[in-house]
Amino acid sequence: MNLIEDFQKIDSDYEGKLMFELTERLYPICRSITGNGVRETLSILQEFIPIKGTEIPSGTKVFDWEIPDEWNIEDAWIKNSRGEKIVDFKKSNLHVLNYSIPIDKKIGLSELKEHLYTLPDYPEWVPYRTSYYKRQWGFCLPHNQFETLEDEEYHVSINSKLEPGSLTYGEFFVPGETRKEVLFSCHICHPSLCNDNLSGIVIATWLAKILSKLNLRYSYRFLFVPGTIGSIAWLAMNEQRTKNITHGVVLTLLGDSSAFHYKKSRQETAEIDQIMTYLLKDQENAKILDFSPYGYDERQFCSPGFNLPVGRLSRKPFGEFPEYHTSADNLSFIKSENLSRSLMLLLKLITIIEGNRTWINLNPKGEPQLGKRGLYNSIGGISQHKDYQMALLWILNLSDGNSSLLDITLKSGISFEILLKVADELVGVGLLREKI
Ligand code: ZN
To answer: How many whole angstroms from 316 Cα to the centroid of ligand 1?
Structure first.
């Protein structure tokens, strides 16, 4: 198994274009925390990986929460007194308050205004708003349009259904040599919004597709869940399995052009936190954020009753870019090259997760004689010659069962890739065994 070589063969520009095409297909679908939009999304993703869908009936208790009624929508609009559609769900699903109850009624401007949402600071954009747990109806529109509304009678119509059904989530498992699992999770509940979180969905799908063709040490679990209620539901249904989760990353906001941000797990010193800190050292302007109990589904995975080693990878964090949760988070806000760079970073992460073993030097008394094993000066003349020799010495010296290969990387300043190659050679000549 040589993951570095496998991943170098990937044409990242080409994969970026394919991921962008998938984003374009998923963009128009009206998703929510339940309903057919999520099912339709999963069925498109199933063209790439065999995701298993799970349906949890409305009313099911999941820890302190209850699966809500299922929401589906056909159409919605506001007509003015001349019968002209001035707001139309068919043009953008963001125009409807997500989870709106059905309505069909004629009302005056002042009553209508109680149900309208706008962004005065960005008057051209339509905000994204939801009301999952309070039954109400509403429309979202540009503030500029809101200001032109005249005092007349309006006809509002929302053809939606909110009734007992189920919550849908998707799961894809790639078995490895061990039962220890790496978890990747993304949320699939947002309608026409690209960075948040079609970027996370397509990157998780691509990563899963690539990993499913490889022989891996760890098992990999990919979750496609509605935010908050979906991850809580998965945890409630799979509590026993969570003990196998050794590393995890929530994937979100990975298509814009800003620098990478990794938010540490609640544990803060978990191996995944150490690996991501190392990986982002070489990424321009990248930031490591401390854990906080606010954010995406890391909130659930890192709740104290689980405290899983799950961090979050994004580019610019939510709330720090004005396009967040607005119609401006559209297909021109993300780029195929940003998607591919995010994917390639995750492949580097996989290389380190898979390669970060702890070794034991089987000849710890005095240095082993490397020359007679064909190791010393064995690759003279190549540019990494000195690093190679030093890598041999560092690994042999620190492999007493207390330092992982990444610990040795950090201590020696030699790249993980060189240490990985050298460790393989030392295993090959019988000087190392893995600490189990
Ligand atoms: Zn969001």
So the answer is: 13
Residue labelled with tokens 């979100």: 252
Among candidates 277, 308, 348, 315, which has minimal Cα distance to 197?
Answer: 315
Q: What is the dihedral of CA 214, 220, 226, 227, to 10 degrees?
A: -120
- Identify the bridge partners of residue 404 per DSSP, sorted by sequence position: 358
Interval between CA 347 and ligand 1 midpoint (Å): 25
Mean pLDDT, the chain, whole residue set: 96
CA of 92 to the centre of ligand 1 (A): 17
The pLDDT of residue 336:
98
What is the model's pLDDT at position 213?
96
Given a cut of 70, is residue 377 above it in pLDDT? no
In the reported structure, the alpha carbon of residue 296 is separated from the centroid of ligand 1 by a whole-number distance in angstroms of 8
Residue 349 has which token pair?
């992460």
Task: Report the chain's terminal Cα–Cα distance, integer Å.
Answer: 19
For residue 165, report the distance from its CA to the centre of ligand 1, in Å: 24
What residues pack around ion ligand 1 (CB closer than 5 A)? 196
Residue 235: which H helix or E strand, with range?
helix 229-237
The rounded Å distance from CA 299 to ligand 1 centre is 14
Banded pLDDT at 41 (limits 50, 70, 90) = very high
Compute CA distances 30 → 16, 205, 223, 330, whole Å. Answer: 24, 19, 20, 14
* Position 381 confidence tier, pLDDT thresholds 50, 70, 90: very low
Q: What is the DSSP letter of 1?
A: -
Report how far residue 431's alpha carbon sits from residue 62's, in angstroms, rounded to the nearest whole number.
Answer: 50
Q: Do β-strands 85-88 and 70-79 pair in parallel, antiparallel, or remain unpaired?
A: antiparallel
Question: DSSP secondary-structure letter at 198?
Answer: I
Block residue for tokens 């000549």 = 429
pLDDT at 1: 52
Q: What is the rounded average pLDDT of the residues 312-338?
A: 95
